[in-house]
Amino acid sequence: MASTRPRPTPAGYRCAECGWRTAKWVGRCPECQGWGTVQEAEPAAAGRVQAATVTPGRQAKPITEVPTDPVQRRRTGESEFDRVLGGGVVPGSVILLSGEPGVGKSTLLLAVASHVAAMGARVLYVSAEESLGQVRMRAERTGSLSPNLLLSAETDLAVVLGQIDQVQPQLIIVDSVQTVSTADATGIAGGPGQVREVAASLTRVAKERNIPVLLVGHVTKDGQIAGPRVLEHLVDVVCHFDGDRSTALRFVRAVKNRFGPTDEVGCFEMTGEGIAGVPDPSGLFLSRSIGTEPGTCVTLALEGRRAIPVEVQALVVDSHAPNPRLVVNGVDSARVAMLIAVLIKHAHIQLAGKDVYVSTVGGVRLTEPAVDLAIALALASAVTDRPLRPDLAVCGEISLAGEIRPVLQAARREAEAKRLGFGTMLGPDLAKLRDAILEAVTS
């Protein structure tokens, strides 16, 4: 007589990144395009899950009867970092800070650790990439020494958890999560299985003991966070630290935040003494030649909730090559090429057969369409060799028909322009590009 016991269903293979399943092993996941992420899955037992009895304390409640507890935040001492987090670190939260190598992630978190330690709290800084001496040298250079800041150079998760039990810290920093491994998971350090297990264990510690944990995450060549996608789902806050290493300016943006907004941006400046917040970056992207030299125009760009003045510079010269050159820095080259065509067609600006150079001041990159009008006016000023009005700031998107469209957060941009002393905010009140050029260029 044949057995009637349910047999385990074949599990096949599963992608550790996105969860895609297949019956046969493949080297590359067709869903997320990840190489080497398809692994053999555990067999699932056949059968139907039985419903459990719901106890009185776990019954569903109307949303109006659910009590709300105010979130108690802890300041990190870095006001710009607190701005991105929504006012500070929430106890029991797990924060992932990602960024390219050398951008300043360790320097920022070491400064945060020093500020929190100076407030009297014990901080455990786990350096899984550098030795204790290297971290001490950076702390001396940046003035981050504090007796409450405890260092540990460990790569074994079990030892890290033991350090947490012994130190009983109020803040934990792990640099980085991809270099810590555990014997309970398969694969090498940095692999999907290892990263998932390490992050899950640290998250469990944070929730059980109400201790905030800051994790440093590596990024891939295309700027994505290395490791499985489940890493971003496990943590509460995901911040990205970016900036051009040729300049001193750095930005911290919140990609995910369960306790606050994701439209805030923190501005930092890398110096020889470490990293410093820039609460008012209005003067970083302006030169001294505003309104005096042709080819310069000021726009108000949005970085999160901030309206930051940025100067756009343009240079137009006669071309001596068969194909004129278009060189840009800080703006989209395809967008500039479109604006050149609109200027030739609708504003009758002679740009054909000329080399065009467009750049921003300070190394900032402008991607929003609201900077179209500033680029167009800078080009018109450069080709006519006539400067724009010195008290002028512009914002506006330009269509292929030569029309100026309104921009998002126009009131916020206009208020910031008036605060900085710009008398005229040009763009939203004009409809045609040619009218804007006539209004902006001095006679």
Automatic annotation (TrEMBL):
Domain RecA family profile: 70-219
PROSITE patterns linked: RECA_2
MF terms in GO: ATP binding; ATP-dependent DNA damage sensor activity; ATP-dependent peptidase activity; damaged DNA binding; serine-type endopeptidase activity; zinc ion binding
Binding of ATP, residues: G99, E100, P101, G102, V103, G104, K105, S106
Region of interest (Lon-protease-like), residue spans: 355-443
UniProt cross-references to Pfam families, sorted A to Z: AAA_25, Lon_C, Zn_ribbon_LapB
Annotated keywords: ATP-binding, DNA damage, DNA repair, DNA-binding, Hydrolase, Metal-binding, Nucleotide-binding, Stress response, Zinc, Zinc-finger
InterPro entries per the UniProt record, alphabetical: AAA+_ATPase, DNA_repair_RadA, Lon_proteolytic, P-loop_NTPase, RecA_ATP-bd, Ribosomal_Su5_D2-typ_SF, Ribsml_uS5_D2-typ_fold_subgr, Rubredoxin_2
GO cellular component term, pick one: cytosol
Residue window of motif RadA KNRFG motif: 256-260
A biological-process GO annotation: proteolysis
Domain of life: Bacteria
Family: Belongs to the RecA family. RadA subfamily.
Function: DNA-dependent ATPase involved in processing of recombination intermediates, plays a role in repairing DNA breaks. Stimulates the branch migration of RecA-mediated strand transfer reactions, allowing the 3' invading strand to extend heteroduplex DNA faster. Binds ssDNA in the presence of ADP but not other nucleotides, has ATPase activity that is stimulated by ssDNA and various branched DNA structures, but inhibited by SSB. Does not have RecA's homology-searching function. Plays a role in repairing double-strand DNA breaks, probably involving stabilizing or processing branched DNA or blocked replication forks.
Free-text note on domains in this protein's UniProt record: The middle region has homology to RecA with ATPase motifs including the RadA KNRFG motif, while the C-terminus is homologous to Lon protease.
Protein name (database record): DNA repair protein RadA
Lineage of producing organism: Bacteria, Bacillati, Actinomycetota, Actinomycetes, Micrococcales
